């Protein structure tokens, strides 16, 4: 979290927000506090409720129940055009018959700002998105990335305390997307406004956000920094959604010393146990697993699993391997450029330290 010193952004509070369509709950008791000036990303699979949350905040959708405050004031029942919120969608929605300049100035025209001020602010907003030379062009004369930058300028030109963005880079190619991510980050820093950003792309969420709210089936599973979600996932769903992971399932036994999982005849242990009755699984990040040819003398880590290389992916900075384990499940391992390399079908041994295994309750929704 990184609130601006001048606190120009608005806080948002959702408290037990539910949105029902008939008997189906698109949002099922969502509570979330977004700090002034924070960059918050709503991340989750398709249909998990991200867009519905954004629409509720924007005022395009009513809540069925719960509280919604923007800048500490309830906005339930306040129409969208009176909320003074900037919005950018995936599809640019620029007015095709207006020049870029008139598109960007449009929110100021609506607000009755006089022409002199309008021109100055329009130019400032276009400069902010590095489109200052394009004011006289028409949207059809711009690339997709340029149109999206104009849409962003139009959303910030009236200096809203809150900007909502719904998959704004979703229609662009990867290179352009990565560059615009950095631009959006810079604009956020310079404006000090609260940004709420919807994506289903976990890498994009990690690049952009102060914090990320992970959605699943109309609920929030966890809110935290990228690092917190990666290192300390609260649920198996979060652990699998953020970053690569290996999930070990097996017959579990817990005692005072920790937890043992028996997986197709091999046993691995972790020095912790799970509170309660839930069936534990072990989640491991790729960098916590080492991969060696079987019987390698220097292999580190107390736990050993044997497997076969099912996929070898060259990443430039190293290699990523998918290793089929004896129980049919797949482990994901990364190996540095300097390490050994392995071919498809080759037998390998994975080692890990039990202290690096995250014990989590099994969660069938993660499959
Ligand atoms: P995506 O990434 O695909 O946009 P999302 O996480 O943004 O997904 P939402 O658009 O918020 O998901 O939708 C959440 C759920 O609510 C979905 O199952 C969707 O089908 C349902 N839903 C959304 N709008 C309506 C509607 N007007 N009537 C009925 N169901 C709806």
From TrEMBL:
Keywords: ATP-binding, Cell membrane, Membrane, Nucleotide-binding, Translocase, Transport. It comes from the Bacteria. Residues 12-242 form the ABC transporter domain. The keyword Nucleotide-binding applies. SUPFAM superfamilies: MOP-like, P-loop containing nucleoside triphosphate hydrolases. It catalyses: ATP + H2O + polyamine-[polyamine-binding protein]Side 1 = ADP + phosphate + polyamineSide 2 + [polyamine-binding protein]Side 1. InterPro entries: AAA+_ATPase, ABC_SmlMolc_Importer, ABC_transporter-like_ATP-bd, ABC_transporter-like_CS, Mo/tungstate-bd_C_term_dom, P-loop_NTPase, PotA-like, PotA_ATP-bd. GO terms for molecular function: ATP binding. Its EC number is 7.6.2.11. NCBIfam families: potA (TIGR01187). Part of the ABC transporter complex PotABCD involved in spermidine/putrescine import. Responsible for energy coupling to the transport system. The complex is composed of two ATP-binding proteins (PotA), two transmembrane proteins (PotB and PotC) and a solute-binding protein (PotD). Belongs to the ABC transporter superfamily. Spermidine/putrescine importer (TC 3.A.1.11.1) family. This is Spermidine/putrescine import ATP-binding protein PotA. It comes from Mesorhizobium shonense. The lineage of its organism: Bacteria, Pseudomonadati, Pseudomonadota, Alphaproteobacteria, Hyphomicrobiales.
